[in-house]
Structure formats: structure tokens, C-alpha cells
Amino acid sequence: MPDPKSMPIDAHTQVVGVLGYPVRHSLSPVMHNAAFAALGFNWVYLAFEVPPERLADAIGGMRALGLRGLNLTIPHKEAACRLVDRLTPQAEAIGAVNTLFWDGGTLVGDNTDAEGFLRSLLEAGVEPKGQRVLVVGAGGSARAVVYALRQRGASVWVANRNLARAELLAQRYGAEGVLPLDTAALTPELARFDGVINCTPLGMQPNEATMPPLPLERLPAHAWVCDLVYRPLETRLLREAHAHRLKTVSGLGMLLWQGALAFERWTGANAPVEVMERALRDNL
Ligand code: NAP
Fold this sequence. Notes:
By secondary structure, the chain is an alpha/beta fold. It has helices at 28-39, 55-65, 89-94, 113-123, 140-152, 163-173, 183-186, 236-243, 252-267, 273-283, and strands at 14-20, 43-49, 69-72, 86-87, 99-103, 106-110, 132-136, 155-160, 177-180, 195-198, 224-227, 247-249. Strand 8 (155-160), helix 6 and strand 9 (177-180) form a beta-alpha-beta unit.
């Protein structure tokens, strides 16, 4: 595989990148630059720290400079919907954009988080179609996850600290119901679920000791537990699920697959997923 450091940057180099605020924690540059190097593409992926009030200027700059594609991360995913020429159906339904690509001269806003999440489940051997799934959290990532699960034909319940927010999410995507996020409320309910997904930051560094209040011992033996948090790779939730002999799916897969799908939108080439995964693991 070519060494990324040996790739020349010259007058032909194509530029893609991520806009975020903050953005210096992003693993996308190492993941995508490893992929470009592996395929011998004269492309580079950069991180741009763009405050919310400069997002329109930055996307205008992308148009003027001919950047080949962009990712959007916190806090730009919703605002970017209003700055593109067209949204894909999934971006429209989720109300958030994480990938911009060109379709001829048309700047398209897409969302690869939902499809990336689903791919990560399927790659881990979990088929949510027809299953009963509990989504914990009702923020931006929960929206993509609930959308993906409903599209796939799963029955979904949403548990959240703020119940009104869970209700809104459930109504919007046709989830079956909502539950308060506390152990007492969830204890009598958990036995009927096939899978649980954490879409809150509970367990994320530097708060590794925390986890959502889920009585895991109530889940059936065949159930699976997925955590979108990937710092650390094995969260306390996944460790405890493992101790209960439940199948676990880490958040690394969603990060990887949303990136692989974006890579394919920009380049038209199949993403070298193994190279991208190794780059992520080496940098986590
Ligand atoms: P968000 O939009 O800010 O939503 C956060 C959710 O977590 C809300 O439902 C919030 O509940 C809940 N929450 C926050 N702190 C809580 C606490 N102390 N106790 C109980 N609930 C709490 O965040 P997000 O964008 O959805 O991201 C959530 C997590 O997913 C982050 O850790 C992020 O790193 C991870 N993520 C991973 C990937 C991936 O590729 N693997 C992709 C996206 C996000 P309220 O509504 O009650 O405030």
C-alpha cells in the first residue's frame, strides 16, 4: 500500500474535507487519507474549523474552489440543509446532512449516517428487520438511527431523559412508543426487546464510568446491544452486555461505514473499508 506521506500534493490534487466546530478531534482525515493512499488517488482530506456564522461562506467557498466533497459534523448538520441545491430523500427525511457531493453542477446534501449505521449492524450479523428495538436517546444520532430502523422494518421504542423530545421523534418516524430513561421504568419492559442502541454520550471519554440506566439482565439471551459511543472502543455498556453474554456492536462500525459511503459518493470507487478501519483503530 502506498505510504500516505509519500503521496505528492501538486496542481492536480483534489480536495475534500470536514467542516465542524470544534473539529480537531475528528478521525475522518486519517480514515479518508489512508483510503486515498491505498487506492493511489491524488486526493487529500482536510479538517476545517468553521464557526456556525461562517458555514454559508464555507460552502460558498467549496463551490468557488471546486472542492470535490465535504462532510459536516457538529454543529452544522441541520443548517447545511438550507445551503445545498438538492437533498437526497434520506437527508430530507432526517433533516440533517453529513455529506455534500456533486451531481454534475448540482451540489447535493446527503446523509450517510443512517445507511452507515444499518451497514454496521448488518456487518456485525444483526438483521433488525422485524425485530423490536429500543433506541436510547432522542438527539441527532437517534434521529438517523430511528429512521434507518423504521426503513428496514423494525419496530422501535424510544427511551429518553426528556420524554417530550422522545415523543416528537417517535411521532415523526412512526415509532411504537416512548419510555422514560430510568431503571424502574425500564425493568418491566426490557424482556420484550431484541436489541438496544445507546444514542446518548453516556460512557464517552472522559466519563467512561457512566452508562445508560439499563437493567441488561432483563434482556432475552438472544438480544444485542449497540453503543454509538466509540471513545473508548469498548464502553462500560458494551463491557456489561458482554458480561451478560449478549451480542455487542461498537460505534466504530457506524463511523467507518458513514465514511465509506461518503467516499463512494465523492470518488465513485469502492471504499477500501479494511484500510479505513485499520486507520481508525490505529488512531483510537
Ligand atoms: P445529541 O444530539 O446532543 O443528543 C444527545 C442525547 O443524549 C439526548 O437525547 C440527551 O437527552 C441524551 N443525554 C445527554 N446527556 C445525558 C445524560 N447525562 N443522561 C441521559 N441522557 C443524556 O447528541 P448526538 O449527536 O445524538 O450524539 C450522541 C452520541 O452518539 C455521542 O456520544 C456521539 O459521539 C455518538 N455518535 C456516534 C456516531 C458514530 O458514528 N458512531 C455518530 C453520531 C454520534 P435529552 O434529550 O434528555 O437532553
